[in-house]
Amino acid sequence: MSNLIAPSILAADFANLQKDIEMVNNSEADWFHIDIMDGVFVPNISFGMPVLKAINKHATKTIDVHLMIVNPDQYIQTFSDLGADILTVHYEACTHLHRTIQAIKAAGMKAGVALNPHTPIAVLEDIIADLDLVCIMSVNPGFGGQSFIENTYKKVSQLRHLIEFTESSCQIEIDGGVTNKNANKLIEAGANVLVAGSYVFGAENPTETIADLKNIIA
Ligand code: DX5
Ligand code: ZN
């Protein structure tokens, strides 16, 4: 499985979105990470469908949508229509997670589950075989630019063991506070997709920063 970088558009310049999308298109980045927040599941509102539609018009790489919303089931078809390739819902927001995962796949997308920092890996034991991706939150969801929670490494290796034990082909994504300081250790612990928002878009040269991260995790 190759190691991937997914810049988070939450940290892009919304007044120059097309410029930042083209930067990602022309960089060594692998995916676009799109954070959808509803102000209910998380204490922040990011952007919604019209913005994703505009992003999809220009983006030439995989669109990885991270839903931080309650009742994600009611929007599954909408996100598929908007061009999401991967749709990730929060474990904490889904009462009938198995049903939600099947609905995401039936709508033609890859299915992911995100875990908040306090949610143990063990809750995934009976769903792991159905998942294409697990997103381990390494910050509390809701905002970019927060510091990385060190307990994440332990969770990554626990998840890697679970994936190996069940022979699942699930990818492990890390979201929050990713920089050149923790990228290598995360890959060594077993992760293979790193989301990076403020570290990439806050850099003087985002294209080079993406290339550096790719180099670190190669
Ligand atoms: C946080 C979002 C993240 C965020 C990461 O709730 O899910 O994707 O954009 O931003 P950084 O890399 O700045 O922590
Ligand atoms: Zn995210």
TrEMBL record:
A divalent metal cation binds at H33, D35, H66, D175. Keywords: Carbohydrate metabolism, Cobalt, Isomerase, Manganese, Metal-binding, Zinc. Transmembrane segments: none annotated. Its EC number is 5.1.3.1. GO terms for biological process: pentose catabolic process; pentose-phosphate shunt. It catalyses: D-ribulose 5-phosphate = D-xylulose 5-phosphate. GO terms for cellular component: cytoplasm. The active site is at D35, D175. Catalyzes the reversible epimerization of D-ribulose 5-phosphate to D-xylulose 5-phosphate. This is Ribulose-phosphate 3-epimerase.
